[in-house]
Specification:
Helix content: 10-25%
Structural class: mainly beta
CATH class of the largest domain: Mainly Beta
Order of helices and strands: HEEEEEEEEEEEHEEEHEEEEEEE
Number of domains: 2
Radius of gyration: 27 Å
Largest sheet: 6 strands, mixed
Number of strands: 21
């Protein structure tokens, strides 16, 4: 001890020496604590993705991922490059339904044998999380698979976080518009590992912090429909599905006379949904041609609404997308033409799988 702290000898009592040592250790720990805390991932972002089996050259590629976080998701991007290239570029991903995001990569050229890509998400706490890197290989087939059955009649916007943006994307042949990302949105720089150290980047999203890498587990993701490519970002077609999937027309004919308020009913299946499981809601009004309004609001921020007309069986149904464990949906159904007595509201909560 005297070799490390010879100045402690001036304190005669053991108690004084112990106090000084304790104060020194406290100072060291207080200095290291922020670094130790920064190294620990605080975000609870979850990602699920099933990689395509292969790609066919000269066709665009649609990728989907399920991304969620208790605090909410602000944006999702897909970073990609042809194998052997140094730096990633990215396309934005569109929220096509509850936790499902879709994006379209430009068509790879015939000389591109392999594509590397990953997903990056920013949650509502401005924490940046990226997935592991996925790899897909080329197969020279005559017909493009379903995930490449994408129209190529519009310009596709690709972005990069370097100061000097190239005119094209090596390894891809398409109608591509390259965009430079402003420094405040360079989340890939925050995440790290996407650009060579020698690459010229003049800044990153200063308010954002990296929360590390999460492993995106495999997921059976249903089709989101083709993603339309507009200026600056992708936008999902089929907005009715994203907003709740209203399939009934309003109609101008009067609603049939009301039934006894005690005889109409509503329920959902399954009664105790497991996380990620879609829920089907049924409303029975015991009469044909009745207009039923419905809506739902989840504690994860996802909501939807719509209108259906009862069929020959005297009922309607609609589907609410699955959610993460602990999320509660509040469902409301009503028959406006029959008055306030014909409104029902109830809740259910997704349980762990």
């Amino acid at each position: 001890m005297t070799r490390i702290m010879p100045w402690i000898k001036q304190f005669r009592s053991a108690g004084e020496k112990s106090l000084i040592i304790f104060m020194c250790l406290s100072l060291v720990l207080s200095t290291l604590a922020p670094a130790l805390m920064a190294a620990e991932t605080s975000a609870q972002t979850n990602m699920r993705h099933t990689a395509p089996k292969y790609f066919v050259p000269e066709h665009r590629i649609q990728l989907e991922a399920q991304v969620s976080d208790p605090s909410g998701i602000e944006l999702v991007r897909c970073y990609f490059k042809s194998a052997g290239e140094a730096d990633f570029v990215f396309v934005p991903m569109t929220n096509t339904r509850r936790n499902n995001f879709a994006g379209v990569l430009p068509a790879p050229s015939r000389s591109t044998e392999q594509i590397e890509y990953l997903f990056l998400a920013v949650n509502a706490n401005n924490e940046v999380v990226k997935s592991q890197t996925f790899v897909i290989n080329q197969e020279d087939k005559d017909k493009a698979p379903a995930w490449q059955d994408i129209p190529a009649d519009s310009e596709i916007h690709v972005s990069m976080e370097l100061d000097q943006v190239p005119a094209d994307v090596p390894g891809f042949t398409d109608n591509i518009a390259m965009n430079a990302v402003e420094s405040g949105a360079r989340f890939g720089v925050v995440a790290g590992g996407l650009y060579q150290l020698t690459s010229s980047t003049s800044g990153s999203a200063a308010a954002a912090t990296t929360a590390g890498t999460v492993s995106a587990s495999a997921a059976g993701i249903g089709t989101a429909g083709a993603v339309a490519l507009g200026v600056g970002a992708a936008a999902a077609v089929g907005g009715a599905a994203a907003a709740g999937g209203s399939s009934g027309g309003g109609g101008s004919s009067p609603s049939p006379d009301p039934v006894d308020p005690q005889t109409w009913s509503s329920w959902h299946v399954p009664s105790n949904p497991v996380a990620g499981q879609d829920v089907t809601v049924y409303v029975r009004v015991n009469s044909l041609g009745v207009k039923v309004d419905y809506s739902w609001q989840g504690t994860d921020g996802w909501s939807g609404s719509g209108t259906e007309i009862s069929d020959n069986s005297g009922q309607i149904s609609f589907v609410i997308e699955g959610a993460d464990p602990g999320v509660t949906d509040t469902v409301t159904v009503s028959v406006p033409a029959w008055g306030p007595s014909y409104t029902k509201t109830w809740t259910y909560t997704f349980i762990p799988g």
